[in-house]
Amino acid sequence: MPQPELPEPAHPEVDSMLSRKFGKEVANYFSGSPLNRVSFLRTDHSFLLAALKHPSTSFLLFDNLSPLAKDPTQLEYVNFDDVKPLIGENPYSKSEEAMIAEYNSTITIPQLLFLGLDESKRSGFEHNIYYGSPYFALDVTPKGSVKSEAEKLIEITKSRGLQFVEGRMHMSLPAPQAAIYAQARALLDWNARNPFCAGCGQPTLSINAGTKRTCPPKDMASVTNRSAIGSTTAEPPAKERPDCVTRKGISNLCFPRTDPTVIMAVLSADSERVLLGRQKRWPPYWYSTLAGFVEPAESVEEAVRREVWEESGVKLGRVVIHSTQPWPYPANLMIGAIGQCVPGGEEIHLKHDPELENAKWVSMAEVKEALEVGTSGLGEDAGPGYKEGGLRLPSRTAIANQLLTAVTGGFLEEHSHAPKM
Amino acid sequence: MPQPELPEPAHPEVDSMLSRKFGKEVANYFSGSPLNRVSFLRTDHSFLLAALKHPSTSFLLFDNLSPLAKDPTQLEYVNFDDVKPLIGENPYSKSEEAMIAEYNSTITIPQLLFLGLDESKRSGFEHNIYYGSPYFALDVTPKGSVKSEAEKLIEITKSRGLQFVEGRMHMSLPAPQAAIYAQARALLDWNARNPFCAGCGQPTLSINAGTKRTCPPKDMASVTNRSAIGSTTAEPPAKERPDCVTRKGISNLCFPRTDPTVIMAVLSADSERVLLGRQKRWPPYWYSTLAGFVEPAESVEEAVRREVWEESGVKLGRVVIHSTQPWPYPANLMIGAIGQCVPGGEEIHLKHDPELENAKWVSMAEVKEALEVGTSGLGEDAGPGYKEGGLRLPSRTAIANQLLTAVTGGFLEEHSHAPKM
Questions:
Q1: Could you give the C-alpha distances from A95 to A190, B10, B93, in angstroms and in order?
Q2: In this complex, do B253 and A302 lie within 8 Å of one another by their Cβ atoms?
Q3: Which terminus of chain A has fewer Cβ atoms in its 10 Å neighbourhood, N or C?
């Protein structure tokens, strides 16, 4: 499988509130969401409607996956009155059963996501025992039957001096905002990427507040088309669609996809050196940890050993998982691990899977120094203490940096349950 | 999302060769594959053909995802001569480029997977620096244009006294065989489950030795159909298919899907009790750890805290990842963790997401005793030391058992990097 894209460093506020709440746990960038997803309420249309219309509710807009923001360091939200012309007074007026029964593939329903409740804001919104300010995301990409309403909404936001921030290189949001952005982006991308059913090839319908896609058994499109051309006879029944296996029970195809990946700091057998690799497109002297996708029916520990061997020839023994990082480009879960070479397994061979331009063993001291003076984002300059020719590494918001910090701080030695080989 | 299915216990040989090679690392059932996947060789048709035809090569057959076996404790493999009538003399005669250019959606190509090389068997098979006995898997489910050849192959295997073992309740394979079975089943299921492109709705083609599906730009079906009805004019060009976003770069839709799930042993704030839950359909007194799917843009640690709160109301602080288990029904990666309650967070509330019939706090001593006398598979009786009414738990091959074993053995205390709250 292709190399997963390396996390781009972002804002230094990585530890977020989690570091205060949960001791020394490393909370990587894009995690640490302030929202309670209350996922079990996503089918409750009375809850969703109340949340949608509450004055404290925030809507994060995306145009082609670019979020609305003041600038790249600050997301901007709009309110229900802003989005009402696009989504209508009540997009939850029908039950999911009715939405499925009345499905019409020619009608564009703007993709709306319920993200969760920010319980730190006692805004007056309450539903049973649940409370907090509701957050939604909405795809305003102009398309289909809602193209002109979406364009109008985009114009209105631009007239307020706001922008849809493109790309991801310059995303430098505070960690809690980054987590909200990541959740919204991942789910909008998944919906946009999967308009058809992989089981039968027919168009699908978004339900569960944007977290499920279902393959309806009928399509009213034929009925609508007949009406449109002025048929005066009784309307024919909706067209039955071909059978689909996803309608016969629970199918993972109906749920969002997340691709597990491994990313690992690798120690020599004597724990004195660290394996680093680089891709050709990176700036000079820039290295990082190795990474790759987990394959079907592989444990994380096996995937770490396989990827390290395939990319560098190095043979690992024990593997310990350190922390994880969601990565919404488009849907990765980065599982960070520390691996250690078997004695004699350090020889580098780049020709199994030639994805890396180079890999090399670096002394613990050099890694420590680079963590102090040589870190930056891929597109950024190194800090003031950096001297040309020195090792460069990803910044603190990348899990690679956290893994390297952990191994230079003696992470493996502290794991007495996973003894040194 | 729905509750992931609980791992079924299987054969007690769980530690496999990994426990010897890598110290105390917990290698869960379905991991510990003896095969080197050499994933970078999957596009090399000369390698695949040589591997296919080598006398040491093993083919694992599946009929509707049921593997060929002597009995539920022993897989049985066939050789190239057995499968040749179904797959032909050389299924790798065309390059992938040619296969895509000549794609014809009306022709059924039996799904063939290259699984890897068993390097412990010096069988004489060599390719550059790679060696070992090759393993393939083949879907022999009778269908499409190869229905009768597939039926013949099934008949031949049955005449040898072999069977296609249905279901998974009675799978009790030695761990290395279970890992091979898991890899094959997961990939065959993924291919069978995704015959259409989720991006555009058109049928897809298997490439990369069964580990990728691509959306071809043309379909020769129209050409073939014209020829079939005896057209004597020059053949028309293959039908151009509508544009598809997956052809414009790397798309995760083309690669196998693995759904990350969390499963966690939960300790009270004072580490003296363990939280266990049960589903209604389980036998009396049978409990296990809680589990659930990781959501988009969620770290594993966040998913653990969310799922525990949603299912039981219990509020967790720190979370430490313990080990992982591939689970091929259909494509889960179980990420096993240990979580600890925040002080005062132990109150149980089952009504957020009512998936559990019950959840309760159990003393460390009771869990220890149940791990000794009360473990079994869901469909099995408890062991001889069990007394009616005592706690029952999953057996050693389930990661839930490994997590409970770890917490009763002081796993968290050993994690000095993740201090007690």
A1: 23, 42, 53
A2: no
A3: C
Do residues A187 and A193 lie in contact, with contact meaning Cβ atoms separated by under 8 Å? no
H or E element: which one contains A403? helix A399-408
H helices within B160-197, ranges in order? 175-193
Q: Let me know: does A21 contact A409? Beta carbons within 8 Å.
A: no
Q: Which residue ranges make up each domain of chain A?
A: 33-254, 259-414
CB atoms within 10 A of CB A166: 13
Find, in chain A, the residue whose alpha carbon is nearest to that of B37.
A306
Which of B40, B196, B310 is nearest residue A201 as measured by Cβ atoms? B196
Q: Coil, strand, or helix at residue B37?
A: coil
Read off the pLDDT of each residue in B1-11 and give the average, rounded to a whole number: 47
pLDDT digits (tens, 9 = 90+) for A118-171: 999 988 999 999 999 999 999 999 999 999 999 999 999 999 999 999 877 446
pLDDT for the residue B416: 43
CATH architecture of the domain covering B259-414: Alpha-Beta Complex (3.90)
Q: Mean pLDDT over residues B197-221, rounded?
A: 97
A 10 A CB-CB count for A27 gives: 25
CA distance A211 to A255: 7
CB nearest to B301's CB, from A2, A259, A324: A324
DSSP string of A135-189, one letter each residue = EEEEE----GGGHHHHHHHHHHHHHTT-EE--SSTT----HHHHHHHHHHHHHHH
Q: What is the mean pLDDT of chain B?
A: 89
Q: Residue B224: its pLDDT value, please?
A: 56
How far is A360 from A358, CA to CA, in rounded Å? 7
Cα–Cα distance measured from residue A349 to residue A266, given in angstroms and rounded to the nearest whole number: 15
Among the partner residues A253, A256, A319, nearest to B193 by beta-carbon distance: A253
pLDDT at B405 over 70: yes
Tokens of B53: 């035809």
3-state secondary structure of B338: strand
pLDDT score at B169:
45
Structure tokens that stand for A303 in this block: 């995937």
Question: What's the token pair of residue A258?
Answer: 């997340």
Calculate how close chain B gets to A21, using CA atoms only, in Å.
7
Strand partners, A273: A363
In angstroms, the CA A158 to CA A389 distance is 44
**CA distance linking residue B260 with residue A298, whole number of Å:** 12
DSSP state of B2: P
Residues 6 or more apart whose CB falls under 8 angstroms from that of B227 comprise B235
The whole-angstrom separation of Cα A394 and Cα A398 is 6
pLDDT tens by residue, B233-286: 555 667 899 999 999 989 999 999 999 999 999 999 999 999 999 999 999 999
DSSP B9: P
Read off the pTM. 0.93
pLDDT in tens, B53-97: 999 999 999 999 999 999 888 999 999 999 999 999 999 999 999
Q: How many CB pairs below 8 Å do chains A and B form together?
A: 252
DSSP A331: T
A21 chain-B contacts, CB cut-off 8 A: 317
Contacting residues of B for A407, CB less than 8 Å apart: none
Q: A150 to chain B, minimum CA–CA distance in Å?
A: 22
| List of chain B residues whose C-beta atoms are within 8 Å of the C-beta of residue A22 | 301, 317-319, 421
Low-confidence stretches of chain A (pLDDT beneath 50) = 1, 6-22, 169-170, 226-231, 416-421
Q: Least CB-CB distance to B193: which of A196, A199, A298? A: A199
